[in-house]
Design a protein that fits this description.
Layout: H1 18-37, H2 41-44, H3 48-76, H4 87-118
């Protein structure tokens, strides 16, 4: 008898979901942007090693914030959306519930992590 595969998904062998990896990459990119574009005295006065440590802490806290935001999104996302704002408002709400809480958690986590180290 032949064994049937229940799923034909190529990512079944991965121990981590692509969503977790994606938010980790987003955290890395935003942490680099936060530390290179920021012109505050706190960042400009820091040494290279301190900025590197802040980047590492910001990466981890941003990633945790995005995953926490995803958990909150899964819990609080409404089943149905009723609007009187038209199609654009409906699109805005759908996009918010797709990535909004994760982005908020990502930005808060990176900002908090970097500022705690650079303080």
């Amino acid at each position: 008898m032949e064994q049937e595969h229940e799923s034909t998904d190529e990512l079944d062998g991965l121990p981590v979901s692509p969503e977790v990896i994606g938010w980790g990459v987003a955290s890395l990119v935003l942490t680099i942007i936060f530390l290179t574009v920021n012109t505050s005295a706190m960042v400009l006065g820091a040494s290279f090693m301190l900025k590197l440590l802040a980047g590492l802490v910001g990466l981890i806290t941003g990633w945790i914030g995005a995953l926490l935001g995803n958990t909150i999104r899964k819990f609080a996302q409404p089943d149905a959306i009723y609007t009187n704002g038209g199609a654009l408002h409906l699109i805005w709400l759908k996009v918010f519930w797709l990535i909004g809480p994760q982005i908020i958690g990502l930005i808060v986590g990176i900002g908090l992590g970097c500022s705690l180290v650079l303080r």
